[in-house]
Amino acid sequence: MVGEGADLEACVPEPGSFAVDVRDGRVGRVMGRVGPYVQLRPPGGGSEWDCPPDAVRPAPPGLVLRARVTEVNREGQLPR
Fold it and tell me: How far apart are CA 57 and CA 64, in angstroms?
């Protein structure tokens, strides 16, 4: 069917946003695309992993908040 690929592309979160890898539930920041895969990085850094676009979903607000807190904690930028 024409247009199915475009619909799938529309579902991939933008680089810089948080997403969930539905294969195992990991949350990561979308770093971009490499070939057919979406690259995700754990909150606060670490090794990126490849995720097929059909297994990526935008992270819900609660998980985004948790991921952002993790990043801030790892950067040591919490108010004292």
Answer: 12
Q: Indicate the SS3 state at residue 20.
A: strand
Mean pLDDT, range 20-41, rounded to an integer:
96
Other Cβ atoms within 10 Å of 76 Cβ, number? 6
Q: Which residues contact 41 (CB under 8 A, 6 or more apart)?
A: 28, 29, 31, 47, 48, 49
Higher pLDDT, 19 or 8: 19
- Is the pLDDT reported for residue 18 higher than 80? yes
Is-contact 21 40, C-beta < 8 A? yes
CB distance 46 to 40 below 8 Å: no
